[in-house]
Specification:
The chain is mostly beta strands. It has one domain. 9% of the residues lie in helices and 56% in strands. It has one helix and five strands, in the order βββββα. The chain has a five-stranded antiparallel sheet with strand order 1-2-3-4-5. A hairpin with a 4-residue loop joins strand 3 and strand 4.
């Protein structure tokens, strides 16, 4: 199972930063054992200020914010306006 999530990593009176991460969880086992493997990888950083709202990928290149909202619906509330 793999999904994207947004997590607030910094906030002050003029700036909020959110990390968009890919989370993958695998599990398995048999009668004798059970295992869980989790992997979290960064995808983007969302920058939200009173004047701006934008996303940068892991190489600090601009990303299409609307496309990111489609993949991570919880970001839609940010689009209501800086």
């Amino acid at each position: 199972m793999s999904r994207l999530r947004a997590r607030e990593i910094y906030r002050d009176s003029r700036l909020t930063l959110l990390a968009v991460e890919s989370v993958e969880i695998q599990r398995g086992g048999s009668d004798a054992y059970f295992y869980v493997r989790a992997n979290v990888q960064p995808i983007a950083v969302v920058v939200h200020t009173p004047e701006e709202l934008y996303a940068l990928d892991t190489e600090a290149l601009p990303m299409d914010f609307e496309q990111l909202v489609e993949a991570v619906p919880e970001l839609a509330s940010l689009g209501d306006g800086p």
